[in-house]
C-alpha cells in the first residue's frame, strides 16, 4: 500500500486534497472546546490546509505522512523558515507551530506522542483497507490520553468494496472506535454526483473506567 501512495503523489493523483479548509473543521472544532495550545495529532495528513487552520487558531500540530512529496508540497505553500531534524526514525520538518513527521503512522509510539492532547482525522480511514482501519483505531487510542477529543471526517460511496478511497459506513466507524472512544455523530453530507457522502464525528478517548 505504501508504494501505491508514493506513486499517487508522484503522479499527482491526489483528488482527495482540498484547496480550502474543510468546512466541518471550521463548523465543529470550536464545539469540542479543546483548550488553545493543545497539540493536535493529524494522522495521514497529506498536505491538508486544515493543519494551517488549526495552527492559526492556536493549536500546535503534529502531522504524520508517509510520502515526502506531500510534506514538501505542504511546506512550499508558505514562505517561512523550515527546520529539519531526525528523531525516532522519522524525518521531521517544522514550520512555525506545525511539525510534519515523515513516516508510517503505525510506527509512531506513545513516547513520541507524549504532548498530544487532541486529534483531527479527515480521510484516514478511507485510505486504509478493512484490517488497517481496525488497527488504526486501536493505534490512535494508544497515542492519545484519556479525555482527548478529536474530529473525524470519513466517506461512503457506492462502490463499497473498491478503494482507496474505501467506503467506510457509520456502523464500521462505531465498531472500530467505540471500544476506546465515545462517539457523537455530527453530520452526514448529501451524496455528490459520484455517490460520495461524508460523515462527521466527534470522538473522545475513554478513560480506564469509562
Ligand atoms: C486520503 S489521503 C488524506 C490526506 C489528508 N488527511 C487530507 O484530508 O487531505 C491519505 C494520506 O495518507 C497517507 N498515508 C497512507 N498510509 C499512511 C501511513 N501508514 N502512514 C502515514 N501516512 C499514510 C497517504 O500518502 C495520503 O497522503
**The CATH homology group name:** Vaccinia Virus protein VP39
In total, the number of domains comes to 1
Q: Might you state the CATH topology name?
A: Rossmann fold
**Hetero groups:** S-adenosylmethionine
Helix fraction? 25-40%
What percent strand? 25-35%
Number of strands: 9
Structural class: alpha/beta
**Spatial strand order of the main sheet:** 3-4-5-2-1-6-7-9-8
Using only C-alpha atoms, the radius of gyration works out to: 16 Å
Protein name: Thiopurine S-methyltransferase
Pfam families: TPMT
Binding site for S-adenosyl-L-methionine: 9, 44, 65, 122
Organism: Vreelandella zhuhanensis
Layout of helices and strands:
Layout: H1 2-11, H2 23-32, E1 39-43, H3 50-56, E2 61-65, H4 68-76, E3 82-87, E4 90-95, E5 98-102, E6 116-122, H5 130-143, E7 149-156, H6 170-177, E8 181-188, E9 197-205
Parallel strand pairs: 1-2, 1-6, 2-5, 6-7
Antiparallel strand pairs: 3-4, 4-5, 7-9, 8-9
Amino acid at each position: 500500500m505504501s508504494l501505491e501512495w508514493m506513486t499517487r503523489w508522484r503522479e499527482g493523483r491526489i483528488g482527495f486534497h482540498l484547496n480550502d479548509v474543510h468546512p466541518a473543521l471550521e463548523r465543529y472544532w470550536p464545539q469540542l472546546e479543546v483548550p488553545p495550545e493543545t497539540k493536535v495529532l493529524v494522522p495521514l495528513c497529506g498536505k491538508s490546509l486544515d493543519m494551517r487552520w488549526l495552527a492559526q487558531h492556536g493549536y500546535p500540530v503534529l502531522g504524520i505522512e508517509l510520502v515526502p512529496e506531500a510534506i514538501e508540497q505542504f511546506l512550499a505553500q508558505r514562505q517561512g523558515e523550515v527546520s529539519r531534524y531526525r528523531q525516532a526514525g522519522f524525518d521531521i520538518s517544522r514550520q512555525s507551530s506545525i511539525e510534519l513527521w515523515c513516516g508510517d503512522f503505525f510506527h509512531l509510539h506513545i513516547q513520541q506522542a507524549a504532548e498530544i492532547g487532541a486529534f483531527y482525522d479527515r480521510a484516514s480511514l478511507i485510505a486504509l483497507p478493512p484490517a488497517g482501519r481496525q488497527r488504526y483505531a486501536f493505534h490512535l487510542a494508544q497515542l492519545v490520553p484519556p479525555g482527548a477529543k478529536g474530529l473525524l471526517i470519513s466517506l461512503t460511496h457506492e462502490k463499497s468494496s473498491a478503494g482507496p478511497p474505501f467506503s467506510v459506513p457509520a456502523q464500521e466507524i462505531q465498531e472500530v472506535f467505540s471500544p476506546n472512544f465515545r462517539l457523537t455523530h455530527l453530520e452526514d453530507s448529501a451524496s455528490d454526483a459520484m455517490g460520495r457522502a461524508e460523515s462527521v464525528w466527534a470522538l473522545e478517548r475513554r478513560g480506564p473506567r469509562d
